[in-house]
Design goal:
Elements (H helix, E strand, L loop, with lengths): L1 H20 L10 E16 L2 E19 L2 E18 L2 E19 L4 E17 L8 E16 L1 E2 L4 E16 L9 E14 L1
Antiparallel strand pairs: 1-2, 1-9, 2-3, 3-4, 4-5, 5-6, 6-8, 7-8, 8-9
Length: 201
């Protein structure tokens, strides 16, 4: 019995020693990354006697695989929800919008931990209008969108496997509501700062 325990202890200590000697490189071919960021907004807007309150949540998880050193390809998701309550001359009205998007992406890390990312994607949104005082205005509107995003940032590594990654981004979307006239055109462009936490494994 003592011999079995001794052998087990030696194997365990040997595996620990090998683990300590292992040097993980986060940005080499064959590695993976997973990134996530979330935004929560609560806004109150008052203009004279009219007011509105809105609450929104945006969640953006992403994951990728390094096909070569420093270069990864992956897929991102965008999930959003917004609820706005308006109280104006016409009474109280609620506007609820939910959205979902899929974005294939490519990311390249430079040797100084700067990185660049590009993504294209499609998205879908549903907006519901309704109110207790104006039931005749209750309706739903569905839209689909196509767009792209480019960005650049810096990876602050907290260890071999975790990095905090602030980035500045530009995005553009072409938005197409269902049943809209053929000549209807709507686009949305924005510049925004994002801070994500990325795990490498």
């Amino acid at each position: 019995m003592k011999t079995v325990i001794t052998i087990f202890a030696l194997v365990f200590m040997s595996s620990l020693a090998q683990g300590q000697e292992y040097d993980f490189n986060a940005k080499t071919k064959g590695s993976y990354f997973a990134n996530g960021s979330a935004s929560i907004f609560s806004t109150t807007n008052k203009v004279g006697d009219d007011s509105s309150n809105s609450f929104s949540i945006d969640f953006m998880p992403r994951a990728g695989y390094f096909i070569s050193d420093n270069l990864a390809v992956g897929l991102g998701l965008v999930v959003s929800s917004n609820k706005e309550t308006r109280d104006d001359l016409f009474g109280e009205q609620e506007i609820t919008t939910t959205g979902f998007g899929i974005t294939p992406l490519a990311r390249y890390y430079f040797e100084n931990n700067l990185f660049a990312e590009a993504a294209i994607g499609i998205g879908f949104t549903k907006t519901s209008f309704g109110g207790d005082t104006l039931p005749g205005l209750e309706s739903d509107m569905k839209s689909n969108s196509f767009g792209f995003r480019i960005g650049a940032g810096y990876a602050f590594f907290l260890g071999d496997h975790i990095a905090v990654e602030p980035s500045i981004n530009y995005s553009w979307e072409d938005i197409n509501p269902e049943d809209a006239p053929s000549d209807y055109k709507q686009s949305l462009s924005s510049i925004f700062l994002n801070i994500g936490i990325t795990g490498f494994f």
